[in-house]
């Protein structure tokens, strides 16, 4: 039964609280990984195709690591796997910074290691959230989560961006040295996050079998949504950096632009997570998709500095709003289906990740195809618009999914 007032910190278990604090600390790493690694590649190669190759390597490493993680969860403590995922993000950056030149082989290696990092981090994080929260607390959990990464998404780009461009030397050698110092700090933060996380206690999956190829029809709706979500993820992480470096050419401007309007959005997300209920998720999800479309629309229409700023503003609102709705929808469906089919919860998390991978791969290939057959400008201008338009279909699919889920719950009663 839903409470009439908002959810509070006391509604979370101790393990859920530790997981939130861990994610808060690690949130200081994610903007560096998401933004400045891509800008580092652009600065040293001036080739958006190499940025996309790096991204494809990451997205190839993630689902493979999800699969391996399924086997490891039956043998190794989840705390060790989750911590390893965080630490590997630092290792990947070290590999990148140690390259004498931005070669295709080096990019692929660094990308695969980062993919392994994300694979271990996100697969175990999804499982941990599923097992330490309830459907009632998940809106607030993701509200807090998005608040944390939105705030760090403001502060970190400003601090790192201006640190990179305000040193004694603006030559590549001087800026690259400062990138290396940022990498050292990233490593220290991942170690701190790992230490904090080990203060919690978490259970392993109840069933060892996790690999299935046939699922309930309602789960197919979730996979359709994952395809569309993955389309945007194919290059949405690197698109801001490529656009900023194209129109502004400076990591300092990149950092400042990330902060515009984001703090206001962060507090909106916190309140939305605290006071919204499961019945509001479809409406929240729809607003997020419309904001994403508007971000892509203004970028495609204007394709100048003003268009990029509008793109960033709408994107900063769209991404956390989508997370507040999408992940609770996914986890609630896993709760229902795992009980209905008697399966390991991780089996659904793994299958969902492969759906995301298909979407990411198609999204990245869309960009590369437009760049190859047209130009980089055409790719940066229109790939997002194509994907933003297609993503609106998710509103219809989500509505169908929630209806079928309710029917299944009634059948189980």
UniProtKB/TrEMBL annotation:
Record carries keyword Ubl conjugation: no
Keyword Coiled coil in record: no
Annotated keywords: Membrane, Transmembrane, Transmembrane helix
Matching InterPro entries: MFS, MFS_trans_sf, Sugar_transport-like
Membrane-spanning intervals of the chain: 20-41, 53-74, 81-98, 104-122, 142-165, 177-197, 230-248, 254-272, 284-303, 309-333, 354-373, 379-398
Protein name listed in UniProt: MFS transporter
Organism (species): Flagellimonas marina
